[in-house]
């Protein structure tokens, strides 16, 4: 982590959704804050001078809370974002606005679907029980999943195009459902789907409040050095 390499005092906050997170070179806290008021209180009580929102692009509630809490506590904020993926030659995307749209897009005869959305929204796809679902999860499920036909692969990225292509071929996948997370770490499944000529249902990112954004860790360090002044924070 660059802040540790630079000797900057920092605390990494994790949501707690992964049972065995990777070791980090800075202090780590796990769990929620108790909404906007709880986060604002944490910022004040711990003397936080800057907040970097590096959450997943689909963690809309946390990002919205961060914007509101920083405004309340007078703490500058910047979001480290990943550029969204855009369809290119050979991509067969159906774009949908949200999870409900992805579920609706799966209406029809049985297919073999790689459901690459994490574990939080799996229950929604029980409305389309006709499909055989391939699920890749960071941790083994703690309870039976609501999908009558599924296969779970427990694995942690980053993944490779060759590896994801082999996975899809082994499971005879013919459709991929994914969130438009952007960046390179989760892109392998999109490249593999293109190489295999597979359709993809791509879930668009949620809308977020206006905020300062950068797209690289180095830009975060530059923002920290200038206290956010160049980004209008």
Structure overview:
The protein has 7 helices and 11 strands. It is an alpha/beta fold and 233 residues long. The strands form 3 sheets. It has a 6-stranded parallel beta sheet with strand order 5-10-9-6-7-8. It has a 3-stranded parallel beta sheet with strand order 3-4-11. Strand 3, helix 3 (60-73) and strand 4 (77-80) form a beta-alpha-beta unit. Helix 2 (35-45) packs across helix 3 (60-73) and helix 5 crosses helix 6. The chain starts with a helix and ends in an 8-residue tail after the last helix. The model is unreliable at 229-233 (pLDDT under 50).
Read across the widest sheet, the strand sequence of neighbours is 5-10-9-6-7-8
- How many angstroms does the end-to-end distance come to? 24 Å
The average pLDDT is: 90
Strand content: 15-25%
Give short descriptive properties of this protein.
233 residues; alpha/beta; six-stranded parallel sheet; three-stranded parallel sheet; 7 helices; 11 strands; 27% helix; elongated
